[in-house]
Amino acid sequence: MIKAAEGKTLQWACKNCLNEKRAIPANPEAQTFVDFAPYFAYFDVSLQCSDCGKEFIFSSKEQLFWYEHLKFWVQSRPKQCVECRRIRREQKRQQAEK
After folding, report:
1. Tell me, what's the pLDDT at 3?
2. Who contacts 38 (Cβ-Cβ below 8 Å, separation ≥6)?
3. Which among 12, 21, 14, 19 is positioned nearest to 39, based on CA atoms?
4. Less packed terminus of the chain by CB within 10 Å, N or C?
5. Using one digit for the tens of pLDDT, what is the confidence trace for 16-57?
């Protein structure tokens, strides 16, 4: 953890950010991590879709769901926006039906 804090990869939030709802608390014990520090808080993150190129928000609530309920590795991030993910799922479903 000390290396993560020194390397600025430790994600935590101050009381003001939590009180103002700019961040939500995380449960590191519920996360899957090995070579990447766990999250102590989640913030909305702006990402760029690899399919359409548009910016999209990976919300703090979505991160909590990904990392604590679905148990994705904490270093994983979505590559596509929600719309492009839906399109890909639909294409895969249609391929499976053929």
Report:
1. 52
2. 26, 28, 31, 74
3. 12
4. C
5. 888 888 899 999 999 998 888 899 999 999 999 999 999 999
